[in-house]
Write a structure and sequence with these properties.
This protein has 374 residues and is mostly beta strands. Helices cover 9% and strands 34% of the residues.
Length: 374
Amino acid sequence: MSKLFDELKRRKVFRRAGVYALVGWVLVQVTACTVETFAAPLPQFEIATDWPQLPHDWKIGDPSSFAVDAQDNVWLLHRPRTLSDDDFAAAAPPVIVFNPEGEVINAWGGDGPGYEWPQREHFIHVDYQGFVWIGGNYCPDRNLPRLQALNDDQILKFSPAGEFILQIGRSNGSSGNRDISNLHQPADVMVDPATDELYVADGYGNHRVIVFDANSGEFNRMWGAFGNQPRDLDNCPPPALSSVPDGPGPDQLSIVHAIRVSNDGRVYVADRENRRVQVFSRDGQFIQQIIRQDIPFARNLELSKDREQQYLFVGGGDGIVVIDRLLMETVGSIAIEGMIGSSHQIATDSKGNIYIAGAFRGMQKLSVRTAAQQ
């Protein structure tokens, strides 16, 4: 691609015919690069029917989110308070840790001294140092059983063993999108190892990306769609759109449902109800987006675990859409028999397996098929 840009600089053309010729030349060159980029075959998957192994006397509520740590242990966050009255007494702790074989190796979570556990568990993230981040998305207008009439406006940080370390924001504390101390029903987070900053998809009540220092919790910056200043538009319950209009979409984010930061410093944001993924620089400069008017899209995000992070996995339609990360073009999809759909949140491990938290639809592991299996 560097040769392409060098040639563009050399061929300075000002006449109209010359411009048309140059555009044609550029399209040929980009097409050639695209073919080379897509040369590697897309991964193939199958459902792991023996995963995980849970104690028989444990009951699991709606599986909301997965995270995978550096040892390929898989962390589940579920919602115990969604269980029926008969099962609630046997509810498993909201955080369950599985080893790579799917065996339970730890479990913890829930109310405790010094912090405010979320009313409605929504996301879990294990950062590059092993710290565990948890948040919720409850608003009182949902009027769900067993939940207090409190907004989840906070994010919690724990050690791997469940020891409380830090809380950002306070329950019921938000004053809107300009509040730099509180969240408002945040949906997802990721710590950027290069800067040790916490990027927050904030979320259901707010409509922004907000960035904090991951150690102190101090505010660093925030932005909205296309890098705009986010505006207040607090809808609870949130809107559920049956379709979106043609064009680039609104100048504000709707439900900011997932966020990922790539190794090369691009920030990927799932704007769920607007059916688009927007891409930014670390400082919030808008780069590009992909939008799908034809299907529910941008339900979740995950990066592939190869060194270049070639693929972006995005929940859409009845499965997971596979996107070339740099070109932001669809190159395939994952929709296999028995799959629970595009799901609520997803995560991948170092082998490329995908873990699906489907909320009320359950949970699954999609195992990468080896060359021999394919």
